[in-house]
Design a protein that fits this description.
Arc Repressor Mutant, subunit A, single chain, WH-like_DNA-bd_sf, five-stranded parallel β-sheet, 2 domains, alpha/beta, carbohydrate derivative binding, transcription regulation, 7 strands, 57% helix, Rossmann fold
């Protein structure tokens, strides 16, 4: 394999080859995708400790993707950092937050609120810094061009899906929530055509029904936007556009603040786009 020449190409190759990697190399793959700043700044020993593998495994991972060794792969991430504002990675900021928060124990309600608020602030800052303008522009164009938007998000993802369906209808976009009432998820999704858009939302542990609908929709040549927490998510591979969202997690309880912020951004941006088009045609 020819070694990818920039981090984004490497990430794409990791996702494409992930299923063929050994379990140990898959551990490294997840760490590389989720901790780019660590890859740029930390020593091989620290990265190995944090990803729970031997340093030799990281070297083997780098060689699998065509590099001479781990240092050559890490150089890509160092170069990427030079083009971005310096800030700790999301993973490092969460580690810092957890150290400040201390061990789990009985907390007063105000302390719980403070922890959730602080953690959500980190998640929103990560959202602001990680979502690319080009991806948002493309998402708005996909929504605009679609004959109808179908939205699926089950279990923990359901609040985001229901908000999108509700809000899109209020800006005059045909939107349908695939909620699987009475076990009719397959019937609800059968109306999807190549002129439609599916917005699929799923976070770990991923709902298999959402992945199935995404796969079927891809076969029907519908366009797909995925909102998920990893490039290795089962819905990411089928998507035309994938938003990787890191929501806050406090003492094993996860928030949806960043995901809902993205959902609001998509709806309101679509409304502004349509208003601008209407004004230009007057």
């Amino acid at each position: 394999m020819t070694a990818p020449t920039d981090p984004e190409k490497l990430r794409a190759e990791i996702v494409r080859n992930y299923d063929q990697l050994s379990p140990r190399l898959q551990q490294v793959a997840k760490y590389v995708l989720e901790n780019p700043n660590d890859m740029a700044l930390q020593t091989l020993a620290v990265i190995a400790e944090r990803s729970n593998v031997q340093p030799s495994t990281i070297v083997r991972f780098a060689k699998t993707f065509g590099y001479d060794g781990a240092s050559q792969m890490q150089e890509l991430f160092r170069d990427e950092m030079l083009t971005q504002p310096p800030s700790p990675s999301y993973a490092e900021r969460i580690r810092q937050f957890n150290r400040r928060a201390g061990a789990a124990g009985a907390l007063a309600p105000h302390d719980v609120m403070q922890e959730f608020a602080d953690s959500n602030i980190l998640a929103l800052e990560h959202l602001k810094n990680s979502v690319r303008k080009a991806d948002l522009d493309r998402a708005i164009e996909l929504i605009r061009a679609a004959n109808a938007v179908y939205i699926i998000g089950l279990r923990r993802s359901f609040p985001v899906a229901s908000y999108l369906a509700y809000a899109l209808r209020h800006v005059d976009k045909r939107a349908y929530l695939l909620d699987g009432v009475a076990g009719m998820l397959a019937e609800q999704s059968s109306m999807l055509t190549s002129k439609d858009l599916l917005i699929a939302i799923s976070f770990h542990p991923y709902a298999p029904e959402t992945a199935e609908i995404a796969t079927v929709s891809k076969e029907q040549k519908a366009r797909i936007i995925a909102i998920t927490d990893s490039r290795l998510s089962p819905i990411a591979g089928a998507a035309d556009l994938c938003f990787e969202i890191k929501d806050a997690e406090v003492r094993q309880f996860r928030s949806l603040t960043a995901s809902l912020c993205l959902a609001q951004t998509l709806v309101i941006s679509y409304a502004f786009e349509m208003e601008g088009r209407a004004r230009s045609q007057r």
